[in-house]
Each structure stands twice: as structure tokens, then as C-alpha cells.
Amino acid sequence: MPPAHRRGTVPGTSALHERRRTNGMLNNLNNTGRGFDPVRQMRFAQRDMSRLFDNLRVAAPPDFPPMNIWAGSDGAVVTAEIPGVVPEDLDIAVHQNTVTLRGNRSTEPPADDAVVHRQERITGAFARNLVLPFRVDGDRVTATFRNGVLRLDLPRPEADKPHKITVSRV
User: Fold this and answer.
1) How many CA atoms are closer than 13 Å to the CA of 66, on its beta-carbon side?
2) Which end of the chain is more exposed for a tag (fewer CB within 10 A), N or C?
């Protein structure tokens, strides 16, 4: 039998045209879901695994309190968001280049017949250590508290500050 009369071929078409037509049909099958598409199957598996793990809350809680830190040649400034904490419940300690912030964030207990639907706010005791790249002059540290934000001004000792050295001509 001549090649043009083989099963599945159209008389008068070239072999290249026939290959392109066959590949196009396979692509259409894959896109319509009737054929095997490994990328599509991986997407389905990923979606199923995501659904499985959506109900598990294994992630570590974020560090509390969240802090911003700015450091310069004279010292550092630290701000920490601590809503719901009164300044009297804070314990701040400085030792060499380490600042420790401790406190307790209490919560209001729900009514006896209440059902908790979601509890995202961190409550209870907290402690956070911050290591700076230089020593802190503990006698000159100042702390202010306003609108739930703690601000620590942490100056460097004069002996630890960088000094500019001028070069003289000989």
C-alpha cells in the first residue's frame, strides 16, 4: 500500500504536515483533559496538598513584640509595638551589647457561654533579646512609651564611639 493510503493519513498530505496535524491533536487532547498532561497533574497534586495542609497550623509564631532598629555612630534607637501592655509591666535590661525586653500581655477571658472562633493575638509572658553590634551605655539609656509603642534610645559609650583620625604630613 502506498504511504498516502495508510490508516489515519489523508491522501495528498506530506509526512511533515501529517506530523504537525497529529501533534496538534495530541495537544488538544491534553488541554481538554482527555490526555495525560504531567504539568496539569502536578498542579492538581499541589492544590490537593495545599488543601491538606491549610487546616494545620504548624508555623512558628512571629517574634513578639515586633521591633524596628536604627543604628548610627552615636548609638541605636529601638521601637517596639506592645499594644495592651502598661509600662509598669515592662522589664528592660541592658548588659554590654544585649538589650532584653520582658513583659506580660494579659487577655480578657470570654464569657462562659462564648465560643472562640479565632484567636490570633499573642497573649501571656514574652521576652525578646536584641544583640547590637556595639556596647550600650546603660546609665544613659532612655525609654518612652506612647500609644502602645515603646522607644528605647541606646547610646554608645564615648570610649566605644568611632573616632576620626587625621593624617598629618611629614
Assistant:
1) 7
2) C
How crowded is residue 65: how many other Cβ atoms within 10 Å of its Cβ?
21
Query: How does pLDDT run across 104-153, given as a tens digit for each residue?
Result: 888 777 788 888 778 777 788 889 999 998 999 989 999 999 999 999 99
- Cβ proximity of 99 and 152 under 8 Å: yes
* Distance in angstroms (rounded) separating the CA atoms of residues 118 and 134: 42
Spans of the chain, pLDDT less than 70: 1-34, 55-62
Q: How many CB atoms lie within 10 A of CB 156?
A: 21
The pLDDT assigned to 69 comes to 94
What CA–CA distances, in Å, run from 145 to 8, 38, 63? 82, 57, 20
